[in-house]
Design a protein that fits this description.
3-stranded mixed sheet; 14 helices; elongated
């Protein structure tokens, strides 16, 4: 609203005060017409330079807002490597990511200022607090806890969150032995914004305390990774150890090194819990007698008890399973060597029999040859005698 003067004489009231927008101040002047008694003040319109600046700002804002993810939405190759996908996402979301990080940083600083103000105020809550007192406001916002936004500044959109969760799920499915597949699926559902995930994705069952015989029956499931043998502090550790040690004598376990290793690891866990329980009982008895025990002594005593239990168990295992118990692979190798030795002995016997046979054959052939020679000599002698007789008969005749 423009401001100006109205005629009322030559004298101006409050001439030492500036005019306000829309104000018409009285002037002591006598005018013949109302039109000649009013003098509006001139106001300059916006210049062309300001209008051009406005157009430049609008164009820059449109260009900034029009920036979208480059290449990530049109990719049809589902077998694209993870590194390529992440690189495309970072390239297309560089501007929005920078804006999101700065917004996150600004909100973090604002929360910090609000926490300092609330902590310095010290007033009570304006509403009821379940299970606590209302006069805890200043303590809740002191320097023990940092008030930060619950967000990831590196992820600013749902598509980016879903893409990262999808790549994590692919990696977990490619090698489930090295990943927590349940957690990968849960993060995927969380990125999609699914409510009540537990109703769709059943969480894995946690190990529960059970008896030793049942644990022996679960050994096959433990071998394939579907079950885990776990010891609990409230169990009878000595009974479990003896039951597992007796089961280790069976042919099923003795011929399976993986099963033997799982049972030994489970027994070692029982030994550790048993040693901790014995150490706590001894320390508690000493404390009841009024002795002060430093933490270093408690840990040293626990280590000593575990070492004693381990030594006693290894001796018992050596007596039960045999001190010379070898690896089944070594036993198989030894059996293979024994079979080879038997084959070699049989081959040597066969060769010896063939040599004796050839020797007897040669002797028989030599005897036959001698007999032939003897027969030839006898025939020659008989022929010579006949010839001599013929010659003698001719001489007589």
């Amino acid at each position: 609203m423009p401001a100006g003067f109205k005629a009322r004489g030559l004298r101006i009231r409050d001439d030492d005060q500036p005019l306000q927008p829309g104000e018409w101040r009285d002037v002591d002047v006598v005018g013949t017409e109302l039109r000649s008694s009013l003098l509006p003040l001139p106001y300059k319109e916006p210049s062309a330079t300001l209008f051009q600046l406005l157009g430049f700002v609008v164009q820059a804002a449109q260009k900034f807002v029009g920036t979208t993810d480059i290449g990530t939405g049109n990719v049809q190759n589902t077998e694209m490597p993870v590194g390529t996908t992440v690189a495309l996402m970072e390239r297309g979301s560089r501007i929005m990511s920078a804006v999101h990080k700065r917004l996150y940083n600004a909100m973090k600083q604002e929360f910090k200022l609000l926490a300092e103000i609330i902590g310095a105020d010290g007033s009570d809550y304006l509403y009821n607090v379940t299970g606590n007192q209302q006069g805890m406001k200043a303590q809740d916002f002191d320097g023990r806890v940092d008030i930060v936004p619950v967000a990831n500044p590196n992820i600013f959109s749902m598509s980016q969150r879903v893409s990262l969760a999808s790549e994590q799920l692919k990696l977990a499915q490619a090698n489930p032995q090295m990943h927590n597949t349940y957690e990968a699926y849960r993060r995927m559902y969380s990125a999609l914004g699914v409510d009540n995930i537990e109703q769709i994705l059943t969480p894995p069952q946690q190990p529960q305390p059970t008896n030793a015989i049942t644990e022996n029956g679960q050994l096959q499931m433990a071998l394939v990774g579907k079950q885990q043998l776990k010891a609990f502090p409230e169990q009878n550790h000595e009974a479990h150890i003896q039951t597992h040690l007796a089961f280790m004598q069976s042919m099923t376990v003795r011929g399976n090194p993986a099963a033997m290793q799982i049972l030994q690891t489970h027994i070692f866990e029982h030994l550790s819990l048993k040693g901790r329980l014995v150490a706590q009982q001894e320390i508690q008895a000493m404390q009841e007698q009024g002795q002060e025990i430093p933490p270093e002594m408690m840990q040293n005593r626990m280590d000593e008890i575990e070492a004693e239990l381990m030594t006693a168990y290894l001796q018992e295992e050596a007596q039960v399973l045999g001190a010379q118990r070898q690896d089944p692979l070594v036993e198989l190798k030894q059996q293979e060597l024994q079979l080879k030795q038997q084959d070699q002995m049989q081959d040597a016997q066969q060769e010896q029999m063939e040599l004796e046979f050839n020797k007897r054959k040669a002797q028989e052939q030599a005897a036959i040859q001698r007999e032939r020679i003897g027969s030839t000599e006898d025939i020659a002698a008989m022929r010579a005698q006949i010839a001599m007789q013929r010659t003698a008969n001719k001489g007589r005749g």
